[in-house]
Design brief:
CATH superfamily of the largest domain: P-loop containing nucleotide triphosphate hydrolases
Strand content: 15-25%
CATH class of the largest domain: Alpha Beta
Radius of gyration: 27 Å
Helix content: 10-25%
Function: Plays a role in repairing double-strand DNA breaks, probably involving stabilizing or processing branched DNA or blocked replication forks.
Organism: Saccharomonospora marina XMU15
Largest sheet: 9 strands, mixed
GO molecular function: ATP binding; ATP-dependent DNA damage sensor activity; damaged DNA binding; hydrolase activity; zinc ion binding
Pfam families: AAA_25, ChlI, Zn_ribbon_LapB
InterPro entries: AAA+_ATPase (IPR003593), DNA_repair_RadA (IPR004504), P-loop_NTPase (IPR027417), RecA_ATP-bd (IPR020588), Ribosomal_Su5_D2-typ_SF (IPR020568), Ribsml_uS5_D2-typ_fold_subgr (IPR014721), Rubredoxin_2 (IPR041166)
Strand order of the largest sheet: 6-5-7-8-4-9-10-11-12
Length: about 450
């Protein structure tokens, strides 16, 4: 029975439903439907009010106040679209220990150093931490060399206190670490809860828009990899960045997920060191393993992350299996696509792989999910199966279909330009790939069998 005068609302996305259900039909979250009283106001006519500013022709709108200001961290500026726009709210989410606080300390230091040098005198940097003490943050800043007179530090977890610090310091950049540890006295619940996170985020967004203050929020992620807290948190902020990286590797990537002021598919590469974090403007070398001589089971490809082409190495190992069901181990690649490529390679390429253990992986902690790596995976497995090495000057780009055809992929010209820059001389590409750069010999292959034949004619040196 539906209760009269009662409504139900999802605490995650705010969807209102007529009756209680266990799972929200909009965001698919379980146990988030809450009973609410019928507080719907009567429909009333809205009276016209005085606008905050009169409407003007678009050509007369001042754009100088909305120019992005560089943070001083080049790889982060690339992802942000040039820097921080006044009044922008950025949510940087990542797993614990991946290096979020270390990166933002570097951002605060570079901002303070640039304002101290007079490059843009918009105020110092204010770093507010709710997870650590001020002494702990100071020790990390000293270890990484990020101490400056125009960097202000506060250890507080109350939103009202944060606003007081902003009034006292008058910063040009506010960093809050993290939004899940902050609490607002106007909201109920414990810090980190849905109500508190929503109230804190709304308060900081209002502060940023009112004063034109760039605000960077640190966010936690769930075990599924999504931002912890209500889904409305991602809608409130202007930019959502994911900070990714393997704990066993020094490589870190900042990936744009949402950006109202720039491209939402850019990535920035960083290297986490003992003395801090540093941008890697040319990360292709991290994903290649230089061998003294050609080794069977390796193939080079060019993947595109956002708008950035990156060279990566795919390695494969094929061995005789003693199990009834041979092992298929995958690292850094899409396991479903690898299984499909193996099936096509066995059916269309004549490789008998049914009784073999096959291991495929990328180098340097690189994670590749795009279909353009299919051809490189097939060549690496075929090379390992036949125990014949491919030319170290060869790159392979293309998607492999179930019929064995090699399909076109986007940005072949940009991919090959990066390969030319790093000294590669030959490339296997799909047919009709568009204009290609000079300096590299391209071999168009229409199917997988043709690609397996073409690699035999590529010189080893």
């Amino acid at each position: 029975m539906v209760k009269k005068g009662v409504s139900y609302r999802c605490a995650e996305c705010g969807l209102e439903v007529a009756k209680w259900v266990g799972r929200c039909p909009e965001c698919q979250a379980w146990g988030t439907i809450e009973e609410r009283g019928d507080t719907r106001p009567p429909i009333a006519r809205v009276a016209a009010g005085a606008p905050s500013a009169p409407a003007r022709p678009i050509a007369q709108v001042d754009v100088e106040s909305s120019r992005a200001r560089r943070t001083g961290v080049g790889e982060l500026d690339r992802v942000l679209g040039g820097g921080l726009v006044p009044g922008v709210v950025v949510l940087l989410a990542g797993e614990p220990g991946v290096g979020k606080s270390t990166l933002l300390l570097e951002v605060a230091y570079q901002w303070a150093a640039s304002t101290g040098a007079g490059q843009h005198d918009v105020g110092p940097a204010l770093y507010v931490t709710g997870e650590e003490s001020a002494g702990q943050v100071r020790l990390r800043a000293e270890r990484t060399g990020n101490v400056h007179d125009r960097m202000y530090l506060a250890a507080d977890s109350d939103l009202g206190s944060v606003l007081s610090h902003v009034d006292d310091v008058k910063p040009g950049l506010l960093i809050v670490d993290s939004v899940q540890t902050m609490s607002s006295p106007q909201a109920e619940g414990a810090p980190g809860g849905v109500t508190q996170v929503r109230a804190v985020a709304a308060g900081l967004v209002a502060l940023a828009k009112e004063r034109g203050l760039p605000v960077v929020l640190v966010g936690h992620v769930t075990k599924e990899g999504s931002v912890a807290g209500p889904r409305v948190l991602e809608h409130l902020v202007d930019v959502v960045l994911h900070f990714e990286g393997d704990k066993h590797s020094t490589l870190r990537m900042v990936r744009g997920v949402k950006n109202r002021f720039g491209a939402a598919d850019e990535i920035g590469c960083f290297e986490l060191r003992d003395d801090g974090i540093a941008g890697v403007p040319d990360p292709s070398g991290l994903f290649l393993n230089r061998h003294a001589e050609a080794v069977p089971g390796t193939a080079i490809t060019v993947t595109v992350e956002g708008k950035r082409p990156l060279l990566g190495e795919v390695q494969a190992l094929v061995g005789r299996s003693n199990l009834n069901q041979p092992r298929r181990a995958v690292s850094g690649l899409d396991s479903a696509r690898v299984s499909m490529v193996l099936a096509v390679l066995e059916k269309r390429g004549g490789a008998q792989l049914g009784d073999k253990d096959i291991y495929t992986a990328t180098v340097g902690g690189m994670k590749v999910t795009e279909p353009a790596v299919d051809l490189a995976v097939a060549l690496a497995v075929s090379s390992a199966f036949n125990d014949t090495a491919l030319s170290p000057r060869l790159v392979a780009i293309g998607e492999v279909g179930l019929a064995g055809e090699v399909r076109r992929v986007t940005g072949v010209g940009r991919r090959l330009a990066e390969a030319v820059r790093l000294g590669f001389t030959h490339a296997l590409v799909p047919p009709d790939s568009g204009p290609l750069p000079e300096g590299i010999k391209t071999l168009e292959v229409g199917d997988l069998a043709g690609a397996l034949r073409a690699v035999e004619y590529v010189p080893m040196a």
